[in-house]
Amino acid sequence: MNTFRQISQWRVVAASVCGTSHLKNKQLCQDAHDWQILPNNVLVIAVADGAGSASLGQVGAKIAVEAAIAHLAYQEISDEILAQDLLLSDLLTQTTLVARKSVIAEAAACNHEPHDLATTLIIMLATPFVVAVSQIGDGLAVAQDSTGGLSALTVPKCGEYINETTFLTAADALNTAQIKVWREKIVNIGVLTDGLQMLALNMIVGEPHKPFFLPLFAFVAQTEDKLIAQEELVKFLCSERISQRTDDDLTLVIAAFHH
Questions:
Q1: Which domains does the chain have, with CATH numbers?
Q2: Which residue of 11, 49, 105, 171 is 20 to 30 Å from 164, comparing CA positions?
Q3: pLDDT (tens digit, 9 = 90+) per residue, 91-135?
């Protein structure tokens, strides 16, 4: 799994860590992430959070992100696709469908029901001038433009009850997907699972919390050493500052683009 890579002008740092509640119960981390930089500075990211109620939630999350990135990596993402919102939306929808079918196929191969591998899924495609996101379930995707504007491209999708959300394996999953295309001069992007969303998002107004994101964006923009970057991000996610606010599994992918 990638933790840091600098190709051309993208810098990416990413990590998934086990929440304190899962550590106490000797459970595995149920989050997963993957990313890849494609030709023409196209950065693709997938982040998933396996359902705590699912016996194989961590498997579903891992399958979902790997299938999504593999599918995008095999596509020819042309300038024509990048220039049209509808084509980008269709690409993300198709990628989500591929990920869903992969999870359901894995469930069948393991003699389990699809809901045993239930997971959320966020897929992001970013270039220096456009970001496109598809999200099923909770979590958060943000982007910052060259003027410093910070926007929540998606917001947590919760159900009627607290901690209730829609999962990729649900029959109506695709109908609930949030899809957003944002065209600006992109400087930073971030994707995270719901373990961090109470720290990263002002839930009342649905806006990203700048004191959370801005230091992280500065960190990824300035970091040169990939080992230090990985260690520092994991240390941050495991810090007392974070663990006092959440005991859930945590995934954070942050990236900076230098124009």
A1: 4-257 (3.60.40.10)
A2: 105
A3: 999 999 999 999 999 999 999 999 999 999 999 999 999 999 999
